[in-house]
Batch of 4 targets.
Target 1
Amino acid sequence: MHAVVRIALSVTLATLFACGGSVGIGVGGGGVGVGASKDSYQQEIADWHNARIERLKSPTGWLSLVGLFPIEDGTYTFGSADDNDLVFAGKAPAHAGRITVAGKAVQLEAAGGVAMTHDDTPVTSMTLESDADGNPTEIKMGTYDFYVIDRPGSLYLRVKDSASEVRTSFKGIARYPVDKKWRIAARFDPYDPPRRLTVPNVMGFDEVVDCRGALVFSIDGREYRLEPMSEGNGEMFIVFGDATSGHETYGGGRMLYIPSPDENGDTFIDFNRAYNPPCVFTPYATCPLPHPENVLPVAIKAGEKNWEHTAH
């Protein structure tokens, strides 16, 4: 028998990158160009923010996260009853089933009378593939969805509940007024060779990522730099802190996608699209923190403010 686990840990950078939605625009199209009206820009940001909120509020969005449990070799019972090894919050079946772990192999067995499905097909016993290849075996049980995630050296069971009170009572996020002054031209300063960045995490562990350059830009005549943590699909991903962090905005920084630079190394940073990381909304997610080079000594009064019910 294992000790009862109620709160558990971990989310990797790759998972977090999708939580705010992508920029959806390139350097040469879709953004605010010369001659674009203020009203059209305001609408563009409003549309982006509304889409971001809809993703957050979706039945399996971050607001639905109700548990993240470490699972090592052994057998774990799960359900809402307190005598389970993994205690699900909410109105899950009291004794829903058990999970057996052997190395990276995870086997699910549903308890008698408990309905579970995978891809709309009823299951009573099934091997659960983790998200290591990006395609975990997702199990649905009433309002719950759960699956295995693989983080360096550890497996976890991630649990979501579309009936989560956090999700059903969510009223939105305060933002700074949209201001085009925060859509700032930037140039890409490449590193040769790429640098290895040690990215801290709210749970106290680090992740090392490759960074092939920095974004250089100016605010009120002063030059600043930000180092992306990842890039792909025509975008770069940044976690940054600034002088508002811990005051008007979340103390662990905010996240931002920007278009990858063009052939001349030019792009732009639109801080109006800065958004809160998942751990603002749930204690069951962990998030990367800005590494020291990405903490700006200037107040970025743009994008999302801290959520009034911040979880961390």
Note: Confidence is low (pLDDT under 50) at residues 1-19, 23-35.
Target 2
Amino acid sequence: MVAAGNSLALNQGIQEEQVVPARYRQEFLTIAWEQVHLRSIFPFQYFSIGASLIPFIEHNDANRALMSSNMQRQAVPLSRSEKCIVGTGLERQVALDSGVPAIADHEGKIISADTDKIKIIFSGNGDTLSIPLVMYQRSNKNTCMHQTPRVPRGKCIKKGQILADGAATVGGELALGKNVLVAYMPWEGYNFEDAVLISERLVYEDIYTSFHIRKYEIQTHVTSQGPERITNEIPHLEAHLLRNLDKNGIVMLGSWVETGDILV
């Protein structure tokens, strides 16, 4: 039995209320206060994480709130994330619970901080710890996972302090988008119904640019005509299509490839 957090009998420890509203197996009941096992601490417990991140959700249409909470799962980390100006206050807790940022387990002092690791010396026993950082790794959704250090060298840190931001976090808070100027107005019919008209500055200045990493695998088999082999000697192909391949027929590191280019 989960009782409401604003119940007078549960808050002040008095029995002025003989019965309290409670939740049991997704049903709302009214029970005696002696039967309560747990209580709601935070009002956001009634909603999911996506719904709890929608500002002023009580003023939204129910269908639009459902769409907003589901569409947050489609968000991708931006190359330059930004904190939201209008939020619900749950952004920091969501970022901490996700495990994406690097958090200090003990208090100490930063010895060094670079792109791949952070070294800390503990203030108690003087031991040192090297915390590796994630650098441009692929996630299960083909997005880019990267951690950026946020503490300078020589800074004293406390337990639980943010050491490095991860994908879609800034300052230890969830940052899924950008703070842009939005106008609710018609514009020569281009934003009819669900259409959205954006400025070309958002494209040229990489405001909403995101990085995606894909992994490609290839297998060679032994056929009746002999074993297959990987090579750059492919007949009937233009030299332009083979420009990025090395002598073994594998694309070289640092090559700029486009749609239709051969990788292996």
Note: The chain has three domains: 2-74, 75-213, 216-264.
Target 3
Amino acid sequence: MRTEMFRYDLPSHRIAQTPTEPRHCARLLDARTNADHVVQALPELLEPGDLVVVNNTKVRAARLRG
């Protein structure tokens, strides 16, 4: 694979600057069906045998510009 395969247009106004409030209303994409949901619906979307990986890392309050 070449890195240019991953280049695409992403307008800056489409990048979230703050988290969604309330957090359980954040958007979630089901890659199996290509359907939009909210995080609150996750328990109903999971099937037996699915694996959930949770990222609990901390985020530094900083921005890189340039």
Note: DSSP finds one helix and two strands in the chain.
Target 4
Amino acid sequence: MSVDREELRAAFDALDAGLDTLLGFDCEALTTPELLAWLGRVEKVRRRLPALEHAVINTLAHQATPEELGG
């Protein structure tokens, strides 16, 4: 399977930029229902991140040599 490395880098750059934007918002300006809705979205994103991390770790486990991993 091929990977477009530029597209992958752009996706991570977009994720970083999106998080920076979200971190810049003033949560105190939101209502309780808005905060609860946004908290639900934060939780959904947080729960998806381990799936991405696990895919990378599993690929490294099959692909990398001990030397490449510092061993």
Note: Helices lie at 5-23, 32-63.
